[in-house]
Amino acid sequence: MVARRKVAVVGVALSDCGRVDDATPYALHAQAARRALADAGLDRSLVDGFASAGLGTLAPVEVAEYLGLRPTWVDSTSVGGSTWEVMAAHAADAIAAGHARVVLLAYGSTARADVHAGRRTGTLSFGTRGPLQFEVPYGHTLIAKYAMAARRHMIEYGTTIEQLAEVAVQTRANAALNPEAMFRTPVTVDEVLAGPVIADPFTKLHCCVRSDGGAAVLLAAEEYVRDCRTSPVWVLGSGEYVSHAAMSGWADFTVSPVAVSGRLAFERAGVRPDEMDFAEIYDAFTYMTLVTLEDLGFCGKGEGGAFVEKGRLRVGGGGLPVNTDGGGLSAQHPGMRGLFLLVEAVRQLRGEGGERQVRRGADGGLPRLGVASGTGGWFCSSGTVVLGAG
Questions:
Q1: How far apart, in whole angstroms, are the C-alpha atoms of residue 46 and residue 43?
Q2: N or C terminus: which one in the chain shows less Cβ crowding within 10 Å?
Q3: pTM for this one?
Q4: CA torsion, points 48, 56, 36, 329, in degrees to nearest 10?
Q5: Rounded to an integer, what distance in angstroms lies between the CA atom of residue 251 and that of residue 288?
Q6: In what order do the strands lie in the sheet with 369-376?
Q7: pLDDT digit string (tens) for 291-329?
Q8: What Cα–Cα distance (Å) separates residue 335 from each residue in 54, 84, 177, 186, 225?
């Protein structure tokens, strides 16, 4: 039996993000990919694996051709926002098994620019086929589904709207330290609550921003690490899970699929949640952050509201820094944002966070362990990856 190789993230990058009116999604893919390769210091000829989703009729064939790649290993898994954590897990398994040596994950979207230019509407539709045909006639949107789940949590556990607002406030505080964040002006709980209602109980600032942007991540087998210009960040363990298609099939609105993917990732990495120095969590809505913290095991079920109080999610707040770049609520959210979680986690573990750099305990050392956990659809899917510094 061939020994499995260790796998590291050796390059990460973002394309231009925020308001990008003069680029196509393909161009953002390419910009992020070039920057990730430059970050790693590896030649493009070494890339024999490619993964992408969300663009083109035959993704990732079209995007790979645009990038000038001819991969012998591909993945086009598309499970919403968790796509990239799931793809990273697949890529790591393929490299470990010897099916690929260097795999590029790339994403790009002009979601904001398309709406402003009239190329698409602001309403996201998942269609009317399959199980969704039984829900579409009732008209509830993606946002409304998350809002209903948040309301269920409030009823079951006494979670307050002020506690949910704290997630937005603290995420914005982290964004204020990130020069690449789209919105950096601090907000208060009162300002979050005073905003226009989007879907009860969510006001505008409970919801993610709409932006343009792309990201890329490069994973490589351990023997290529010595040729890279950056310190490796090792993939220690991962987990993935899908739970339901229609909301009517969701057994418990207060439990996300992260409860399974997170447990698997920590078990496979051989570490505990309380050993994590930070967490990057998919946050299309404030409720997603709160319930994901519970399901990752950072607090008990129903204790998320109390956990997020008193600034515990802020960089330097004395608790667990969460979404250190400002997250989808403030930094950028061009669609399936899971790849951005991996980029930020790697930057933190390499000590490249700048003003938002996470420090460990009293000694002020760099973080050693971090977790990136993405969710997709209306908490239909999840992927969790545990990463460790080189």
A1: 6
A2: N
A3: 0.96
A4: -140
A5: 17
A6: 73-75, 49-51, 102-109, 213-221, 7-14, 233-242, 381-389, 369-376, 278-281
A7: 999 999 999 999 999 999 989 999 999 899 999 999 999
A8: 9, 12, 23, 24, 31
